[in-house]
Every structure is written in C-alpha cells, then in structure tokens.
Amino acid sequence: MNSYYGLSGKHITGKWALLYIERWLKAPRVKQDGTMIERSRGTPQGGVVSPILANLFMHYAFDLWMRRTHPGLPWCRYADDGLVHCRTQQEAEALQAALQARLAECHLEMHPTKTKVVYCKDGKRKGKYPNIKFDFLGYCFRPRLVRSFRDNSLFAGFNAAVSPSAMKAMRKAIRDLNLRRQTQLSLQDIARMINPLLRGWIAYYGRYAPSALYPLLGYVNQTRVAWAMRKFKRFKRHKIQASQFLQRLATECVDLLVHWQIGMTGVFA
Fold first, then answer.
1. What is the phi/psi pair of residue 134, to 5°?
2. pTM over 0.85
C-alpha cells in the first residue's frame, strides 16, 4: 500500500486527490454478512481508482524494466495483459524466466496457465511447435489464410480475428436480453436496445477479419425470426414466412439495424 501511495504522490500534487486515493486504499472489505475486514495491502477490486493505480504500478514494474533490460524487444501491454516479441524460442524462454523473477521482486506473479511461448507460424515460418495461437484483448491470433491486396491471391499469415471466447460472451449478451420473448416491443424498440451493442462490437472486432463476426450477426437475425414468430400470429409455426418477412424488411429498412447497414442481412432461417 505504501508503494502505491508513494507513486501517486510522485505523479499527483493535489492534496484532495491524494486524500481520496489514500481512503480507497485503506477502505475495509465488507463481507456478505456485513462484517468488515481490514486491508493492509493492495487496491480494492472494482474500486474506481484501482485501474489507474494498477497501470501506474505496472509502468514501473514492467514497462520501464523492459525498456531498460531488453531495449531491442518489441512489446505491448494493456492493464495486466501483455505481449513480448522475441526472435527465437531460447530468447523467449530466457525472457520468461527473467520476467518471472522481476515480477516476484514486485510481489507479483505471472498467470500459470495463460503465460506461454507461442510460435507465430505462417507461410514463411513453417516450424513445428506445440503452441501456435494465443488470445489477446478479445482477438485470437493464429495461422490463417488471408488474401493479398496486391494480386488477390491467398497466402498463410499469422493474423487476428475475434476469439471464440469473445464470440461466446457476445452471444450470451444477446441471449440475456431475452429478445425472443419481448413481444410487447416493436422492431424499432429492439433496434434501440441492441444497436449500441452491435455498433461497438462491429467497430472493435470488425477491424480485422470482419467475416469472423458473421456467425454472431446471423444469430442476431435468427433471434429476430423467433421474435417475429411469437409476436405475429400469422407467423406462428411458419418459420420460412417469418424469415422472408424479415429478409424483405432488411432490404427495405436497411438503416434499422447496424449490421444490416454493412450488408449482413442473411442467415434468417
């Protein structure tokens, strides 16, 4: 706790800001039965100030250490998740051991299952290694067939696309809205509910390999079919007619839903 406060004092001069940071750090943890547990270290999970303090700590524990001890290795970090690019497997394993020792000095440790050395296999790097893919910030990086902008030919690259776990989380977010049973709502009402989600997902995950999002967007369309079959009596037990109705609507009112605007108007069946 003292190290956090010291770092904050180095970067923040406002006494009121320092006062509230100190209060956050000293705030006890309240259990479900109402009893309080005093804390002597760390920053509270979910606390407003915790993310910035964690980033400040990692700046000194990792960022500056990497620049000082391994200036030739490219790296990136987002909060407590990071990547380092090495030239060989031996270099990667040596760095992993050195980083483990560095974090131990800072009373931290690497995640035992998520930390691994990955071989970036593609058309030019054809070696055989056990790990050839990894997830980072909702993207899965692995060997993929990609199309060349130069001559439109296909080649093997090591590229990113939305990860399976992110797809699963997005499907769950749509499913939790229970839109199939929201028959009291109009399609415009539903659009207002899901468009902010779709807009954010498409803007973030659609930047690389946007076609990987098609199964999710198709699932949204299928949810609309189930909703139409419940809402309109003429479509009850008539899935094909409900699908055709929404297909026409997607063509005539393309601005209604965000994914219709980018051409994802299929997979209604």
1. -155, 155
2. no
Distance separating alpha carbons of residues 46 and 51, to the nearest angstrom = 8
Distance from chain centroid for Cα 120: 21
- Residue 218 and residue 266 in contact, taking contact as beta carbons nearer than 8 Å: yes
Long-range contacts, stretch 145-152, CB < 8 angstroms, 24+ apart:
none
The secondary structure element, H or E, covering residue 30 is strand 29-30
What are the residues facing 75 on neighbouring strands? 84
Sequence-ordered strand ranges (E) for 60-170: 75-78, 81-84, 134-136, 139-147, 154-162
Q: 81, 137 in Cβ contact below 8 A?
A: yes
Reported as a single tens digit per residue, the pLDDT across 170-215 is 999 999 999 888 889 888 999 999 999 999 999 999 988 888 999 9
At 6, which helix (H) or strand (E)? helix 2-11
Assigned token pair, 236: 């009850």
Q: Which residue has the tokens 């609309």?
A: 224
